[in-house]
UniProtKB/TrEMBL annotation:
Residues 265-342 form the SPOR domain. It comes from the Bacteria. It holds the Pfam family HU-CCDC81_bac_1. Transmembrane segments: none annotated. InterPro entries: HU-CCDC81_bac_1, HU-CCDC81_bac_2, SPOR-like_dom, SPOR-like_sf. The lineage of its organism: Bacteria, Pseudomonadati, Bacteroidota, Flavobacteriia, Flavobacteriales. This is SPOR domain-containing protein.
């Protein structure tokens, strides 16, 4: 039994184009819900089916689906499709009408052209699953006769007004809305509200101006603090590389550096606990004096390859002593301190 038509129907739920190789392609297009006014019928959204005999090349969709569903090879699936198409062509050649269940019917017209009539029994739009078309009876609206009531109400109101006016002629109190005196206190209340609004607007502007001045002052102060931090920036290496021993020939000291023997004395030891690096030498000198005040044998050890003046807490000959000192300094002074191994 050839179930090719059934497989085509199943694929139409998921795809907009299913090609039957050698015969043609079945195309689907989404249609919105609609109402047929003549019959008062309501139709849910659906996929309309059309047929194009020009698309006959095998795209592999139907053949792969049949091979998976029947657990056969792709070649066998293609052969099965070819046999099915051959049987359809033979039936059409004999003038028979072909019915594909759930898809539609094919027949040959008087002009000997292939005609397709889609089926209306199956809705291939999965979003509209469970929605069926239905016919609703027409709604008949009854007009209520309310004109006499309106006329009666108008007559009653006019009679009541004339009666009240007659009473007003003998009493100083005004009853009808037309003769009520104006209320001057409403004017004063409106003027007072307008005045309060103007005062509130002026006060709000003054408050905004003060806030802006305060914010400007804070911005200037923050910029100055940032500039100072940049001048005293300390560069930290979070994950230093393994220690490397470097032999660098010490450059000749300039005359100005020789004059600062208390800041940059002769250095002994190749293990240095670095406190920071500064772009401006004056800031580096200040840092040395601060560390000396705390009891450290601080000094300048020269300029690194980035042009920064390096300040150290102390220098050591022994590596273990340097590591122990570094650990204490990180806990008590600055966690950004690090160890430099370099011959000076």
């Amino acid at each position: 039994m050839n179930n090719t038509a059934k497989y085509i129907s199943e694929l139409l739920y998921r795809y907009e184009c299913v090609i039957l190789p050698g015969f043609g392609a079945f195309l689907t297009k989404r249609q919105p819900a609609m109402i047929q006014e003549s019959t008062h019928a309501f139709f849910p959204p659906q996929k309309s089916i059309s047929f194009n005999s020009q698309l006959q090349n095998n795209d592999g969709l139907l053949a792969n689906y049949i091979a998976t569903a029947e657990n056969i090879s792709y070649t066998d699936a293609v052969a099965k499709i070819q046999r099915y198409v051959l049987s359809l062509n033979n039936k059409m050649a004999s003038g028979k009408r072909i019915e594909l269940e759930g898809i539609g019917s094919f027949f040959t017209s008087v002009e000997d052209t292939l005609q397709f009539e889609p089926s209306q029994d199956v809705n291939y739009l999965t979003e509209a699953f469970g929605l069926n078309s239905f016919i609703s009876p027409s709604i008949i609206r009854k007009e209520e006769k309310t004109a006499p009531k309106v006329v009666m109400a108008q007559v009653t109101r006019e009679a009541y007004k004339e009666e009240v006016q007659a009473i007003e002629e003998t009493t100083p109190i005004a009853f009808t809305p037309e003769r009520r005196s104006e209320r001057p206190y409403l004017r004063y209340a409106a003027v007072a509200i307008l005045g309060l609004g103007l005062i509130g607007s002026l006060g709000l502007n003054e408050f905004n101006n003060r806030i802006n001045l305060h914010n400007d002052g804070l911005s200037i102060k923050a910029e100055k603090e940032i500039e100072n931090k940049i001048q005293e920036a300390t560069f930290e290496i979070a994950s230093p590389l393994p220690a490397i021993n470097l032999n660098i020939i010490k450059a000749e000291e300039s005359s100005s550096e020789n004059s600062e023997t208390d800041i940059n004395p002769s250095i002994s030891g190749k293990y240095h606990v670095v406190a920071g690096a500064f772009r401006i030498k004056k800031n580096a000198t200040k840092k040395v004096l601060k560390l000396k005040a705390k009891g450290f044998d601080a000094r300048l050890i020269g300029v690194n390859k980035y042009g920064l003046h390096q300040v150290v807490y102390n220098s050591y000959e022994n590596r273990l002593e340097a590591l122990k000192a570094l650990q204490n300094i990180k806990k008590q002074q600055d966690r950004r301190a690090w160890l430099l191994i370099q011959e000076l």
